[in-house]
Amino acid sequence: MKRTNAPGSEHRAESRESSAPVHARPARESDIPALVSLIVRLKRLNEEFDPMLKVRPDVDAQAEAVLRTEIKNPKSLVIAAEGTGPDQDKIIGVVRAAIRERTFYTPETEGVILDIYLLPLYRRHGDGRYLVEHTIQQLKERGAGIVTVEFPAQNEIASRFYAKCGFRPITAHHARFV
Amino acid sequence: MVLGFTMVEAARPRTRRPAPPPTPAKEETAEAEVSQTQALSERAVRLAEFYRGKIETVPKVPVRSLRDFSLWYTPGIAAVSREIEHNPARAFDLTGRWNTIAILTDGSRVLGLGNIGPQAALPVMEGKALLFKYLGGVDAVPLPVDVSTPEALIETALRIAPAFGGINLEDIASPKCFQVLEELQRRLPIPVWHDDQLGTAAATLAGLINALELTGRKLSTTRTVMLGAGAANLSTVRLLIRMGQDPHQLTVVDHHGVLHADREDLDEMQLRNRWKYRVALETNGGGRRGTLAEAMAGADVVLAASTPVPGTIRPEWVRSMAPHPIVFALANPLPEIWPADARAAGAAVVATGRSDFPNQVNNSLIFPCVFRGVLDARAQSIPDDIVIAAAQELARYASMQGLSDHHLLPTMDEREVFPHVAAAVADCTVRLGIARVRASREEFYERARRLMARPAALTEALQNSGLVDPMPDEPIPSRKHR
């Protein structure tokens, strides 16, 4: 699983950052209302894939509570993506990620990308890819030796996207109503 | 695209058709409409039962005696097969493939009837085959198929293709129809067309070209509102932009309001209808939000292909448009706004889908000609430029006959227009390098004129000889007693 960085890839990531129409930074308290709406959009999208992912009626309040906690938690990562140019102060995307310890496997520290959402108008320009790489970098700096990502099994668009980013399935997460 | 073509001007003096007197407000009440439609429906059922099908296969070779069958069938025919085996392209010379298309449907969205299935779609496909033959000289085979997925429909089309020179997809639900058309256009070496998308879009564009001309507008600076995001309108959006419409001056409205990139339903749309999703991102509502009323304020053009309910577009919204606005209310059988109401509200030009009002936007002026053209040129495909060429030629022909707010498009009675549009299509395939038969535009025109005239003569001969029963008067006798 260990991937060696191609020479110059750090540099490319940096230059991408300066030219990217998206600017990623740690989320602040004041971002929360905007981030809540993005997270809720994502959860509603997940619901489209599977009735087992039906969102709770209090999803907005839940999202807000989770974001408030995670912003302060050193084991969590909440990234706000801002537009550039005329959209400079507009929040156009969000990433939620966490650091977890792996009890039985190595590398022992895992970074988990929980949610990534980018508004439709800002897709298709490589910004989603940039957000993933940026998040991986942040997780690595916090000690992650492996990064995983969670999304609905039926979401083939996500499946293809992460495959392009170098991810592959390692565990399966099955469910049944009881 | 400028079409240098002078044959018609030379052949026919530029006589301006006298504009028909403005149609008196013949906008019947809803009840009158209903009873008229009902009478027509009942007669259609009785006639269907009387004639039991609208087309049949008829030999097109002489049969002097049964001995001729040794040429038309075994043993002679084996040599013809062998020749095609060695050179598959010869199928277009040695069989009827050059002039035969399939009318392929899964019956998932038939007329306004919805998903009635392949069996119930058959009468409609038979009728379409009649139109193809009568208007375009094209042998069309009605082919409703029992499939439940787009993939199965695609698979079916791929498998039947060897028998056909082209495929006309018909009455397939949106957005499935986009996937099926795109994939078949990519994978088949013969023209594939979906009439509900392209035929309607081309007829609409033809009308719009002339409406813009009449009101002194340029497409590139026109602000256009489209009501409805179904098969026809989404295709029209793509073609409009290709013709020079500024996407930021284009606002698409569906039943949730203005289609724009921030709408809550966009993620779902990306999954379920990526064609509409793309339009939402590309046009982005022109920065507009809200309802149809808000979108129409200040607009130059409204193109509606939505709900057949007069009042869907309100006169006060027409009044809020730019001066001399263009209103296309194309829902069938009832337009989104009655033409008289639109005119009273200031519309300079009004078009509908109906033949009893001026300016009918009618795909029957397009599909017979497009297929005549691509079949005659043996084209490999029908790219968007062909659709645009057909629209432009239709518009040019109408404008040559004299444009007015009552004569935006040729009517079905102006039969001379058909071979002109066919020749424009064939000529365009040559210029695009997708024609497998090369000829001049004049040659294509002559060929189309000949092939398009034959079916009417044939039908007349069959009627005159009594081989086709004359149209019965009411009450229509039942088959048993004949």
Brief summary of the model shown:
Chain A has 178 residues and is an alpha+beta fold.
Report on this model:
The complex is a heterodimer of chains A (178) and B (482). Chain A is of the alpha+beta class. Chain A is built from 5 helices and 5 strands; from the N terminus they run αβααβββαβα. In chain A, strands 1-2-3-4-5 form a 5-stranded mixed beta sheet, with helices on both faces. The longest helix of chain A has 18 residues. In chain A, 25% of the residues are buried. Chain B is α/β, with parallel strands linked by helices. Helices cover 46% and strands 9% of the residues of chain B. In chain B, helix 6 links the parallel strand 1 and strand 2. The N terminus of chain B is likely disordered.
Keywords:
heterodimer, A: 178 residues, alpha+beta, Aminopeptidase, 5-stranded mixed sheet, 5 helices, 21% strand, disordered N terminus, B: 482 residues, alpha/beta, Rossmann fold, 6-stranded mixed sheet, 4-stranded parallel sheet, 19 helices
What is the CATH class name of the domain at 216-347 in chain B? Alpha Beta
Give me the CATH fold name of the domain at 216-347 in chain B. Answer: Rossmann fold
In percent, how much strand structure appears in the residues of chain B? Answer: 5-15%
> What is the highest CATH level, the class of chain A?
Alpha Beta
- The CATH architecture of the domain at 216-347 in chain B can be given as 3-Layer(aba) Sandwich
Largest sheet report of chain A: 5 strands, mixed
| Low-confidence parts of chain A | 1-18
Task: Summarize the helices and strands and which ones pair or pack.
The complex is a heterodimer of chains A (178) and B (482).
Chain A: H1 9-19, E1 22-26, H2 32-49, H3 59-72, E2 76-83, E3 91-101, E4 109-118, H4 127-141, E5 146-149, H5 156-164
Parallel strand pairs in A: 4-5
Antiparallel strand pairs in A: 1-2, 2-3, 3-4
Helix pairs in contact in A: 2-3
Chain B: H1 7-11, H2 30-51, H3 69-72, H4 77-86, H5 91-94, E1 100-105, H6 117-136, E2 139-144, H7 150-160, E3 166-169, H8 176-187, E4 192-194, H9 195-214, E5 224-227, H10 231-243, E6 250-254, E7 257-258, H11 266-272, H12 274-283, H13 292-296, E8 301-304, H14 315-319, E9 326-329, H15 339-344, E10 349-352, H16 367-376, H17 384-400, H18 417-432, H19 441-464
Parallel strand pairs in B: 1-2, 1-3, 3-4, 5-6, 5-8, 8-9, 9-10
Antiparallel strand pairs in B: 6-7
Helix pairs in contact in B: 6-16, 6-19, 7-8, 9-10, 9-17, 11-12, 16-18, 16-19, 17-18, 18-19
